[in-house]
Amino acid sequence: AAWGLGYFGQPHILARFMAAENVKSLVSARRIGMTWMILCLAGACAVGYFGIAYFGGHPEQVGAMGGNNERIFIALTTLLFNPWIAGVILSAILAAVMSTLSCQLLVCSSAITEDFYKGFLRPNAPQQELVWIGRIMVLAVAVIAIIIAADPESKVLGLVSYAWAGFGAAFGPVVILSVFWKRMTAAGALAGMIAGAATVVAWKPLTGSSLYEIVPGFIACFIAIVVVSLMGKVSKEVENKFEEADKAYQAAK
């Protein structure tokens, strides 16, 4: 259930809503987005249940998964479909991986460059400098991903859950409070992102708990944002923008 908290802070998901043509289109975007995710998650659960039923009745074919339960979709595809159809289905996996990978790299690079580097370190940085920083960040994120994935003991679900927790805990509360609380400051947002990400990284090594890292990370981010924001002051310009956006959204409902 804690995985649900991660959706609030996934840049590649939020970017689609940020690209909406106008406020009114957000209502339709919300319905389409929720419907699509329900279908996707239902399909993922269905694959697991079908796998339990199929391999429970055909235990001699369990070896098709190669000892890795995460290969259940690939195993079922190769066992149950014609090779031509199986090839098309398996190519869809590669397409999804490449699409998600490119999107994640670009969104991560843009977030670091625009929201962190320009937002906090170099507000007046020229565009050419930001372009080079963005390119360097794409390379850096890719190298880090390759290093993490190089571990032969790593599994896709474990890596995804860790990244999901990091994004969700670092950005989720920031997004939620920026929408519903006009008192949040830039310093509070930065403190929350650092606290959330740090908690996710340090949670299991320090505590050894089996609790999913996103839960304490989400809480730590929320607390840091509120505490630091209350210690600072919000500009009148930010308050006016918040009220203007809120009125526009309420009118579009």
Molecular structure report:
It is a single chain. The chain has helices at residues 11-18, 25-57, 72-80, 83-121, 127-149, 156-180, 186-207, 214-231, 236-252. The model has no long low-confidence stretch (mean pLDDT 86). With 253 residues, it is mainly α. The chain is globular and about 70 Å long.
Write the layout of secondary structure elements.
Blueprint: H1 11-18, H2 25-57, H3 72-80, H4 83-121, H5 127-149, H6 156-180, H7 186-207, H8 214-231, H9 236-252
Helix pairs in contact: 3-4, 4-5, 6-7, 6-8, 7-8
Coarse shape:
globular
Strand segment count: 0
Biggest sheet, open or closed, and with what strands and sense? none
Please give the radius of gyration in angstroms: 21 Å
Order of helices and strands: HHHHHHHHH
Q: What fraction of residues sit in β-strands? A: under 5%
Alpha plus pi helix count: 9
Class by helix and strand content? mainly alpha
- Approximately how much helix is present in the residues? over 70%
Can you tag this structure with a few keywords?
253 residues; mainly alpha; 9 helices; 77% helix; 0% strand
